[in-house]
Amino acid sequence: MYEHLVTFKFLEGYKGEKDGVLLDKLLSFKESIPGIVEVTAGINVTEEVGNIHGYTLGLRVTFESKEALSEYGPHPVHQEFVSLLDGILDNVIVVDYPIVR
Q1: Residue 1: partners with Cβ closer than 8 Å, 6 or more residues away
Q2: What CATH number does the domain containing 75 carry?
Q3: Which part of the chain is the Stress-response A/B barrel domain (predicted)?
Q4: Which of 55, 70, 80, 100 is deepest in the core (most CB within 10 A)?
Q5: Full domain range(s) for residue 84
């Protein structure tokens, strides 16, 4: 299995107007994109304010295989989510790794 972690930093002035829509779309991935085992997403509520660096939305997706992870990026449902970020996204950090137990 593979883990896909993403944190989103929005443009200055973004007040969270689309947060509900973004979260709903992220959480719909499991039912819409093959190969996803689990999805969690949420708004950053850490008390470690010195470590936020402006990143306010987090996503974790567990994939059943490297192939499923590779097919996720171009999937139309994922691309629809990406289009929702137009005009509000400043930066994104992505970490993908095989799960070792």
Answers
A1: 37, 62, 63, 64, 65, 98, 99
A2: 3.30.70.100
A3: 2-97
A4: 55
A5: 2-14+21-47+55-98
Cβ neighbours, 10 Å, residue 18: 15
In the three-class reduction of DSSP (H, G, I as helix; E, B as strand; rest coil), residue 98 is classed as strand
The two tokens of residue 11 are 């443009």
Q: What average pLDDT does this structure show over 52-62?
A: 96
Question: How many CB atoms lie under 10 A from the CB of residue 46?
Answer: 11
What's the mean per-residue pLDDT of the chain?
96
Give the total number of structural domains in the chain: 1
DSSP-derived letter for residue 18 is T
